[in-house]
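Pilot study result, target chain (519 residues):
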Amino acid sequence: MIAQLTRSERQLALVMLVITAVFGLVVAIVGRNDPLGIHGALVALLAIVATFRVITDYYQPEPNEDRSRHYYDDPTKVGIVLAMAWAVFGMFVGDWVAWLLAYPDLTFDAAWSSFGRLRPVHTTGVIFGFGGNGLIATSFYVMQRTSRARLAGQLTPWFVLFGYNLFCIIAVTGYMMGVTQSKEYAEPEWYADVLLVIVWVTYLVLYLQTLARRKEPHIYVANWYYLAFILVVAMLHIVNNLAIPVSLGHSKSYSAFSGVQDAMTQWWYGHNAVAFFLTAGFLGMMYYFLPKQAGRPLFSYRLSIISFWGITFLYMWASAANALLTLNGAWDKVRDDATLRFMMVAAVFYGLTTFEGSFMAIRPVNSLSHYTDWTVGHVHAGALGWVAMITFGSIYASVPWLWKCKTMYSPRLVEAHFWFAVAGTIIYVFAMWNSGIVQGLMWRTYSESGTLTYSFIDSLIAMHPYYIARAVGGLLFLIGAVIGAYNIWMTIRMVSQTADELADRPELLPAGAALQQAE
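Predicted structure:
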């Protein structure tokens, strides 16, 4: 990592880290009587550790002069490792929360372990920690290969990656201290939001700069999806998190909107975040890694463009159909390759959950499903079946390409991870579908005298076996993630230090020449 930086770049990194450490110390002093002070101290500590890390390798040999002729994959490699670490952490907390709903005493009488604090730790850990790092890492990889251009800048990718993870750390530690805006998927307070704006705008500029220096005239469709994800999420985040802090030394803030307007703005953010963070970005993954892993061209490039503009203005199923039709002639690979099977299942769940979302919007259906666990099942069909599956598949595809090895450490562990993930998803989703329908029916059942037949407690008791089933499904999915993290780590460890780096050059190829690996 440090070896890829010149002496002047190492000096600039040290300056940035020292400024960050000093800023953290100032925040710690100003907010010493508030959780803001703890976060300031945390920022200072992390910056000091990073400073010593750079100093330790400061006198390493500088990179060769031809480094600009190679793709810059170090940020992608670190991003993948961070994504898997967040996956294990976030899914562990999520399964703990699931068991809490079945057995509430698992809080151990500690405030930080209550459902209200652990639940956003789970959602932030898996959505932003796992999903966000997966998107950043794969976007860096895909953008370079499809543009035949090295990432713009040496320090900028690291600033984006580490700044984003600092935001995630501040968010989850804040929740455990009770620091929250109480907004779905937007819980972090104002100072964390400001950090994310700076990081995200830098990410957008980096992406645009790299595309501007591309050697490939055409902008491949995956980049369209990644760029839409980055641009729209920036807009959503800034508008929804407009707030006024109590003071610069206090973590608490108040929304710039009030009442109904605040609620409307929040879910304008919430569902568009689902569309552009949890859908568009991961479609960018799918449109690159699925055809590459299958060794097949896209069934219809035109359909992918129609799907892009379709998802921009309305949900549609063109991408799911395009993905599955791309696999025509490659079903033997789907049978034999668990990595490709991850992607195939993801495409199936993408089509199913987008259809289910529209189905649940029908008024008679919504009158039954609203406020029930059916919604939880729907969300996790998308989160586990679509987002996690395509991310795991993309990571399994890219790890051998990045670390220059023929296969993963253990293809059998990839197979085991796949079946744990599928089993966990099915058990979880079916448990919540059943739970939600039973809830909806019990809540609308009237006696002959016109009163409700069942009390809320009656419905809660009826949910207990389904909640246990959900926790078991989540546990299976967590076991799969642990297996995957172990397999990836062992793959990295077994790679030879003399791996050939000459295969990763973004130069234009002569007509008829073979493409580089993973291009």
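One observation from the pilot: Residues 456-494 form the longest helix (39 residues). A full batch analysis is planned for the follow-on phase.
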